[in-house]
Amino acid sequence: MSKQYDFSRALAEADRCLLCHDAPCSKGCPANTDPGKFIKKFKMQNIKGAIRTIKENNILGGACGVLCPTARLCEKECSASHLDRPIKIGKIQEFLVRHGREINFKVFEKPEVTGKKVAIIGSGPAGISCGAALARKGYQVTIFEKMEEPGGVLRYGVPSYRFGKDSLKKELKDVTDLGVEFKCSHPIQEKGEVQDLLSKGFQAVFIATGLWDAADLFDKKPAGVYNSVDFLSSPHTIQSDLIKDQVAGKKVAVIGGGSVAMDCAGFAQTLGAQDVYLIYRRSFNQMPAEPDEKIESLENNIHFLILNQPKDYITDDTGKITGIKLARTQLAKAKKDQRRVPVEVKDSQWSLDIDIVVEAIGNKAFEDSGKIYPGVDLDAKKLIKASLEDCRTSQEGIFAGGDIVRGPSLVVNAVQDGKTAANTIDSYLKQRKA
Amino acid sequence: MNKKDIDLSIDFCGVKFKNPFLLSSSPVSNSAEMVARSFEAGWAGVAFKTLNSDTTPIIHPSPRMNGIQYGNKKLVGLQNAEMISDRPLKENLADFLYLKKKYPDHVLISSIMGFSNDEWAYLAKVSEDNGADMLELNFSCPHMSVEGAGHHVGKAFDLIEKFTATVKRAVSIPVMAKMTPNITDMTEPALYAKRGGADAIAAINTVLGISQIDLNQFTPKPNVFGLGTISGTSGPAIKPIGLRFISEMAKCKELALPLSGMGGIETWVDALEYILLGASTLQVTTGIIHYGYDIVEDLIEGLTDFMVEKKITKIEDLVGRALTNLTTTDKFDLKRQGRAEYNLDKCVGCGQCYTVCKDAGGFALDWDGDKRQPVLDKDKCLSCMICSFVCPICDIISYKEMPDTWKRQDAVVMGKDLEDQLNFQPFKQPI
Ligand SMILES: Cc1cc2nc3c(=O)[nH]c(=O)nc-3n(C[C@H](O)[C@H](O)[C@H](O)COP(=O)(O)OP(=O)(O)OC[C@H]3O[C@@H](n4cnc5c(N)ncnc54)[C@H](O)[C@@H]3O)c2cc1C
Ligand SMILES: Cc1cc2nc3c(=O)[nH]c(=O)nc-3n(C[C@H](O)[C@H](O)[C@H](O)COP(=O)(O)O)c2cc1C
Ligand code: SF4
Known about the structure:
The complex is a heterodimer.
Chain A: H1 7-16, H2 35-43, H3 47-57, H4 61-67, H5 89-102, E1 117-121, H6 125-136, E2 140-144, H7 153-156, H8 165-177, E3 181-183, H9 193-199, E4 204-207, E5 213-214, E6 225-227, H10 228-233, H11 240-247, E7 251-255, H12 259-270, E8 275-279, H13 291-299, E9 303-305, E10 308-315, E11 321-331, E12 342-344, E13 350-353, E14 356-359, E15 363-364, E16 398-400, H14 403-406, H15 411-433
Parallel strand pairs in A: 1-2, 1-4, 2-3, 4-16, 6-14, 7-8, 7-14, 8-9
Antiparallel strand pairs in A: 5-15, 10-11, 11-12, 11-13
Helix pairs in contact in A: 1-5, 2-3, 3-5, 4-5, 6-15
Chain B: E1 10-12, E2 15-17, E3 21-23, H1 32-41, E4 45-47, E5 65-70, E6 73-80, H2 89-102, E7 107-112, H3 117-129, E8 134-138, H4 151-155, H5 157-170, E9 175-178, H6 187-196, E10 200-203, E11 207-209, E12 213-214, E13 219-220, E14 231-234, H7 239-251, E15 259-262, H8 268-276, E16 279-284, H9 286-291, H10 295-310, E17 338-342, H11 352-360, E18 365-368, E19 373-376, H12 386-390, E20 397-401
Parallel strand pairs in B: 3-4, 3-16, 4-7, 7-8, 8-9, 9-10, 10-15, 15-16
Antiparallel strand pairs in B: 1-2, 5-6, 6-14, 11-14, 12-13, 17-20, 18-19
The complex binds flavin-adenine dinucleotide, flavin mononucleotide (FMN) and iron/sulfur cluster.
């Protein structure tokens, strides 16, 4: 992880900003962050104004500053790239939000509760963002969260070395200060419970439950094989010590090539794994993880086993994993615009000794996730059908956003959905009143 | 307290400004088309580009400005050899009418410059008759080469009084005199303006200087086809000079006129510094030349947040607040001494502190080459603090007051052995 900026570094970086007219960075953020504006404010010593610009638009501005793949968002079109490199917008943003806390600057005043009650299911980025936006409009918001602590992926997914739980806590405080109520350890799980909320005094419900089922590689899952959800959330669960013991000093294989796989590999390393292998059946460039994540993982001594297809797990007589059978692959010729597919190389099977395996091949919705909101239209993958324009579902009064609508996406997209939903809910409820 | 409780409006010579921020007279206030945009951006008023009465043809040199760069920092200062408005008077006045019609709540200050007594009176009158809320008498443009105009007046104090009095007789709107900094003491000409009836003083106009020389043509810049001139410097580089003159006039009890401060204002901090030293309206040119009209948003927001933090609701309560702490060196308590304090946790080992302390400070630093860190010999520190000015990291070097039992070590005398060869008698005051 690159170092956080202190005041002088942040200012030096802001000084590189060309203060573009019609700033291209400000068009690159899915949540409409305006870096052109907050960097200019920072340069003009209007530091509180800069922080206000960030936080009023994005309640998770600090988290986004750290977690956003800025290279393909705001920083992508930065004019300074034509000189040498883009301005490090994310890092300046993270600094400003942190600095705001250091100088005890409160962006928000506690809004007066004037409006009706709204329920939100899930306290991930989408739920938080929607809750904060509604609270600022005067609504009384309750967020139901099945886990013990709020934050969604920010707490139970992203490892601490990337985004500290302390930062999360502080950013969440801005939300509770707005009057948003978190009801943790409170799963919404009964059949039709979401609809029931509507008859229990809540005027609207926003579903932001994310994706918490992990895809399985094979039918069998021998001892020592984890999925990414259980593995990454382990610091916060009873499995914490167990997994730590199992990984320290051991050989760990992570299967997958996305951002989650990179996190699993990095997390295994922080637990003291002796060697971490990353197994991916396609090429390096085809890995969906962000380019800088991949480079960082390589530099951190993760062994990349690309063009390798897992075939089977090898176990000892107690049923515990001892190795993986792999086959080498080659990329087939491209078919039209499609991704080149990996094809097994004949007679190339080999096996890798391994103590622990983490499968990180994709998060999905639970098969029965629709149970709590029957009547809300879902697609084949059990994702909720909702328009990203307004987050409306097929049922009146029920709105949805974030990963449970988009599929695996980004924090910043979830934040945007939360804002969109808040606006729709606001106009929906105002209309109903009229 | 919150932002809603803050009132940035100010009464200046009986004229109400919705905030203290104005365009100063210059290219940024050259036409109503531009000024209108500035009003939309949030500026409360304008000192319009200095009018002329069409008797003298005005042609600007080309090019007419030069930017002063320091390292990679652009526009730390600006050099200009621009004249007063080159637009026909009628067009400027028509623009006045437009602005007053469209923006009745914004303050229109007509900046004028005459070349004779009658011309001053004429320009004052037509300004008033066409909507100006106030006048600013330009006694300070350094580039007008006509005797009896611009800064030539600003340096001939009796003319200041005379022209001000003429204008005051011609109009009933408040009159402000804009002063040149290219003199040693501004209170004196300001008092002449007051005697002439001025209601306020505006300062500073640009500081005479030479910013750069074209090394191939041996010509000062702006290089106007092979020739250069001593001309007006503005922008951040001249802020210390502007603050000085404003504070001296604010301290002058006899003067006691409202002050419109300018010179190097870009941020709310610059503006606040002018306010704390006695200015109650603020004018900006170079900041706008550098960043555009939008900086007013940051001026307003930054100042408002500051006032919320300090629980001060009105600008008036800030005006001149630093003046009581501004004094002369003889009032300093020299018994209290201190030194630099180093906290090396964040030190990156560049060693700039060592270099400057050795060559320009008390040689109080040693250099640990293995650790790449300075080692402070505390008793040798002069508390000049130059090390802190060059240190790239915040918070490493701070100032620490020492108890009165502490004694600073004297500088080493290299010629100790040679003292017997000294050719020297202590100075005795002749009786
Ligand atoms: C390991 C990992 C790393 C990632 N890294 C990044 C990154 O670096 N940058 C980035 O932009 N994106 C990243 N993402 C993606 C990003 O985290 C998600 O897109 C985002 O969190 C989606 O937000 P959400 O609010 O929709 O869902 P979530 O964050 O998944 O939150 C959903 C919440 O709902 C709760 N919930 C679910 N069902 C119920 C129920 N029935 N009752 C009550 N509560 C319920 C869950 O417990 C959870 O707290 C990462 C994702 C993962 C898995
Ligand atoms: C290009 C230029 C033209 C100017 N023209 C005038 C003018 O016509 N009349 C005037 O009173 N001052 C004029 N000034 C001086 C400014 O109004 C102001 O007093 C000075 O620039 C200091 O403020 P600043 O540092 O904000 O620029 C001019 C300044 C510049 C840079
Ligand atoms: S700023 Fe505009 S008017 Fe001035 S030289 Fe450049 S292009 Fe020409």
